[in-house]
Amino acid sequence: MLGTLTLLLSCQLAGELTARLLHLPVPGPVIGMVLLFVGLLVRGGVPEPLQETAGGILRHLSLLFVPAGVGVMAHLNRLEAEALPIAAALLGSTLIGVALTAWVMSVLSRRGPDAETGHGEDAS
Amino acid sequence: MSPDFHEIWVYLSASPLAGLTLTLAAYQAGMWVFERFGRRPALNPVMIAVLLIAATLMVAGIDYRTYFDGAQFVHFLLGPATVALAVPLYRQFQQVRRSAVALLVALLTGSAASALSAVAIAWALGASERTMLSLAPKSVTSPIAMGVSEQIGGLPSLTAVFVILTGIIAASFGTWVLNLVRVTDWRARGFGMGVAAHGIGTARALQVNEVAGAFAGLGMGLNGLVTAILLPVLYRLFFT
């Protein structure tokens, strides 16, 4: 747990430093993700503790968005004044984005015999 | 107010403890409601938690900045969590490699469509330029979106709100719209959620299916890259 957290933070730190030193427009954590991914490729497997800690953090990923979400308080005036364009833009563009991305991908990728599929019930 | 109570109040509003506890408690309340009423996507735990916290802060007369001093410890974990997405990604690497071309085309289409349709709809309905620019990067994870927003002249904190709302919309209606366009491949379903709705879409996809979750994490990461690079260029083409 402790070792894994150190590993995740080190990757993030290395990512932040890389982004700043090379003036990349990409955020540090994303570069950190790439670094860890390359590390796993080189090592050829996910160590058990990393699997556990990563799983633990990702299970509660949506919790991490709560503090930024509460920032809605600071923008109530603007949200009220432009409620219709904002609501329509968010709803329309999000549904278009999800549907179009998934549709293009499913049309272009021929499904292998082992591909799992899901439809209906509780599919995301 | 008795002097004791006043002292306690001063302590609580100055220490990060209250904001942190409130965040965790509100999220667990949100999870409880979500589980209790049959995991309906419309009862998104993030949305419930945000509403509970905002209501509590307004009633108690605490401003957002004071709350965030405590809650930033949770917010900070977004970084390591983004790094941790390498794990599900690695586990699905064989599948990713097999569908590389499809992923790339879907990524570019979905990324551009999300940003352009948001700006176009807002423009058609008379939104201000500030609002439109803040909307453009709303499909990517908040640290990236806020950085891009600042770069193109939007309001980063407003963008953060749009980012969360986008995630909640996708988590609530993603299943419906994916069934509507008849996409059954878990890889495509997950990728769509990740590209269009970052971490909240990914969290939703992870709840449903591991393959969908891994592709959502991939979509979130890739769209973060693409948006960070392309949006400032598009901005220069359209707005200057």
From TrEMBL, chain B:
Pfam families: LrgB. The chain crosses the membrane at residues 12-34, 46-67, 73-90, 102-125, 158-178, 212-235. Its main location: membrane. It is a multi-pass membrane protein. The keyword Transit peptide does not apply. Keywords: Membrane, Transmembrane, Transmembrane helix. One of its GO terms (cellular component) is membrane. It is found in: Membrane. This is LrgB family protein. It comes from Azospirillum brasilense. The lineage of its organism: Bacteria, Pseudomonadati, Pseudomonadota, Alphaproteobacteria, Rhodospirillales.
